[in-house]
Automatic annotation (TrEMBL):
Keyword terms of this UniProt record: Signal
Gene3D superfamilies: Nitrogenase molybdenum iron protein domain
Top-rank lineage group of the source organism: Bacteria
Stretch forming the signal peptide: 1-19
Name of the featured protein: Metal ABC transporter substrate-binding protein
């Protein structure tokens, strides 16, 4: 009897140690946040690889299968995934992940957004009236979202609540420790032309001037006239051009070559399976690019 009880106790202990909250993250940045806050108490599956534009994914059977068995979906939000996540959730038939349920989490819902209140008119491009969704490009906002995610995980797994909160606070400290060096590095930076309105959060956080965009409107490919006008408006000034790796090079290259500015291509999201260091190192690359000091 004693041996049987000992075996049962060991089974329960091992089972508890292996128990995880199953998370499906829409992007690798959300996967990083989930791994950072959840630690080994969660398992994480990422739907959008970092070399893809998360605006334009399509709902796939593999997405639905992953969501069907998940306890929590962690999305960027602010309609970034509006073109495919609702369809994937519907196909998954997992009501606990529906918006408004404990199993649905949006990072953008827990931070202040920029660009709120624009017209909901797709003729004006890839607009987001609820606000710019690219909150992953601001480490401070990501740290805030991490705290909110810790509370959501604590609700789903109360036994690990203290661990989740401690992990979130550790991430906050890591971000705060890097901010002074980032701010110093871009001190006096002349400004940047982005391809898309995606790294605006980081530029605003560090007070780097945004001089323009390669796209005439968000999500609309650049025309020759727009590129010529952009070059004309910026002639005689200094700056850099930065595009995300999934954006085409030609328009950004034209602007950079005409102005004699450096051109950088960087990912918007960290690698699959990224941890906090991977994410902060990615931000470090963007900061160096905005300062014009990143090796090309």
């Amino acid at each position: 009897m004693i041996k049987w009880l000992s075996g049962l106790l060991l089974f329960l202990i091992v089972g508890a140690a292996q128990a995880t909250v199953s998370i499906v993250a829409t992007t690798s940045a959300m996967g990083m946040l989930s791994n950072t806050v959840g630690g080994d108490a969660v398992s994480v599956r990422v739907l959008a690889p970092p070399d893809r534009d998360a605006h334009y994914l399509s709902a796939r059977p593999s997405h639905m299968a992953a969501l069907r068995g998940a306890d929590l979906v962690v999305a960027v939000g602010a309609e970034l995934e509006i073109g495919w996540l609702p369809a994937a959730l519907q196909g998954a038939a997992n009501p606990s992940l529906n918006p408004g349920q404990p199993g649905y989490f949006e990072a953008a819902a827990h931070v202040e957004l920029i660009g709120v209140g624009g017209p909901a008119d797709r003729a004006l491009g890839d607009v987001h009236p609820s606000g710019n969704p690219h909150v992953n490009m601001d480490p401070i906002r990501m740290a805030q979202a991490g705290r909110a995610l810790a509370e959501r995980l604590a609700r789903l797994d109360p036994a690990n609540a203290d661990r989740f909160r401690a992990n979130a606070e550790s991430f906050v400290r890591q971000v705060e420790s890097r901010m002074p060096a980032w701010e110093a590095r871009v001190q006096g930076a002349p400004g940047v032309v982005f391809y898309h309105e995606d790294a605006d959060y980081l530029a605003f956080r560090l007070n780097v001037p945004i001089l323009g965009f390669v796209e005439p409107l968000p999500g609309i490919p650049p025309t020759a006239r727009h590129l010529r006008d952009l070059v004309r408006d910026l002639e005689g000034r200094q700056g850099v051009v930065i595009r995300a790796i999934h954006h085409e090079e030609r328009g950004a290259r034209f602007v950079a070559d005409q102005l004699g500015w450096p051109l950088y291509a960087l990912p918007l999201d960290p690698p699959l399976g990224a941890n906090a260091d991977d994410y902060l190192n990615l931000i470090d690359q963007w900061v160096s690019a905005m300062a014009g000091t990143l090796s090309q």
